[in-house]
Amino acid sequence: MANKFNYDHYKTVPDPAEKVNFKKKKPKLIAVVDEDNCTGCQVCVPFCPVDCIEPTPIEKYGIPIPPVQVRHDECIGCQICAKVCSKLTWDAIRMIKTKTFEDIYDITLSG
Ligand code: SF4
Ligand code: SF4
């Protein structure tokens, strides 16, 4: 018998990462968390294939559930976290061009 519930709206959400990989080259896009908008739910964390999303240091905001941040030098720009956040929880992650990111923050990412 067919399941009476329809889960089609979850179709574009990928599965959580099965194993952790590592960056091989500099990506075209980088994930940036809008920390003012992030609830700190950490739903995105297990989906990141390179495990580079972590809570911000507790002292930064001084609140029990701090927002998350991306270790940008490890991000491979896969966009999974942004999809997961917008589909399952909030909409707190933006993908921006790596070059733009480097210009804004005046840093050069490895890769
Ligand atoms: S899923 Fe979205 S709201 Fe939740 S911790 Fe990740 S970025 Fe923040
Ligand atoms: S885009 Fe998101 S899920 Fe993909 S590597 Fe970067 S932080 Fe992880």
Write up what this structure looks like.
The chain is α+β, with helices and mostly antiparallel strands. It has one domain: Alpha-Beta Plaits (2-Layer Sandwich), CATH 3.30.70. The protein contains 3 helices and 4 strands; from the N terminus they run E-E-H-E-H-E-H. Strands 1-4 form a two-stranded antiparallel sheet. The longest helix is centred in the last third of the chain and has 9 residues, at 80-88. The mean pLDDT is 90. One iron/sulfur cluster (SF4) binds at residues 33, 38-44, 67-68, 84-85, 89-90, 92-93.
| DSSP helix fraction | 10-25%
H/I helix tally: 3
The CATH topology corresponds to Alpha-Beta Plaits
Count of discrete domains:
1
Radius of gyration: 15 Å
* N→C terminal distance: 51 Å
User: Which consecutive residue ranges, at least 5 long each, have pLDDT under 50?
Assistant: none
Number of strands: 4
Small molecules held by this entry: iron/sulfur cluster
Mean pLDDT: 90
Pattern of helices and strands? EEHEHEH
- In what range is the share of β-strand residues? 5-15%
Task: Identify the overall geometry.
Answer: globular
Strand neighbour order, sheet with most strands: 1-4
The helix-and-strand class reads alpha+beta
CATH class term = Alpha Beta
CATH architecture: 2-Layer Sandwich
State the major sheet: 2 strands, antiparallel
